[in-house]
Amino acid sequence: MINIPCSGKKLNVRQIGKEKVVVVMGATGTGKSRLSIDLATCFPSEIINFDKIQVHQGLDIVTNKIPEEDQRGVPHHLLGTINPNLDFTHSDFIETSSSAIDTITSRQKLPIIVGSSNSYLEALIDYDDYEFRSRYDFLCLWVDVVMPVLQSYVAEQVDDMLSNRMVDELRPFYSPDGDYSRGVRRAIGVPEFDEYFRREESVEEETKQRLLEHAIKEIEFNTCKLAMKQLGKIYQLRNVKRWEIHRLDATPVFRRRGKEANQAWKKMVAEPSAMVVARFLYNSKNNANVVSGHRVLPASDSVMAAATC
Questions:
Q1: Which CATH number does the domain housing residue 215 bear?
Q2: Are residues 195 and 298 in the same domain?
Q3: What is the pLDDT of residues 68-118, one digit of tens each?
Q4: In 136-204, where does DSSP find H-type helix?
Q5: Distance separating alpha carbons of residues 174 and 9, to the nearest angstrom
């Protein structure tokens, strides 16, 4: 029987020669942070963010950082730690995330790397003659939502941000010279509100409302455009570079609301992911057979019981 320690005890993730690392990837808005927390509260873990905008301080609402109260006490690295005016390069990410992985494994915990900036992830895993691969075994979990459903969710999410004082959060980051090429000002939402902030004091209320609606539509459009780009990169990593990436279809979750959505998440995303991770950590010989195509194969009752913490 696989016994997963869900009580916060140290987890021995050290294997002969290599450590274990879990990656949670997917387009923006698909629930990656939620899954990473689910896994981290089941397998004693710490989380490393690989979203190139969320690494910066500021714009917590606009960049959709997971709030501290939702982190459930799980330590996070590279989340809102970088000066908002500085760029954070691929080299910076490789150096900082590698150090974080070493620190986490030294504490006998599992590093979970989560985010949407797949170029960062690719740089980390395939850089410098594949040094990462020589030191770590890694498992990629892809939380996927079909684009029409995700587009609808993005629109709802932007509305929620708007009601959560998004405009007030954005205002200090308005740049009179229109330079949104560095640091956190590259975030979707900042350049889209440029015209609104530039003209809000000099136009009538009707025009101001029209500018606001246009900015919101631009945010929705550019977020979906970014999601498509992120998906394209995942397909390239899987189909061209031949990364083994385990897809979990969260679409049915996003078609539900309230308690039904939470139940669907547990059944279709959280529990299957926990089973895949359990086999990755404790039963590596069978890991290649855990997933066939897009469907997670059923595990034994003992694995299911252990994985549903």
A1: 1.10.287.890
A2: no
A3: 999 999 999 999 999 999 999 999 999 999 999 999 999 999 999 999 999
A4: 147-163, 166-170, 194-199
A5: 46
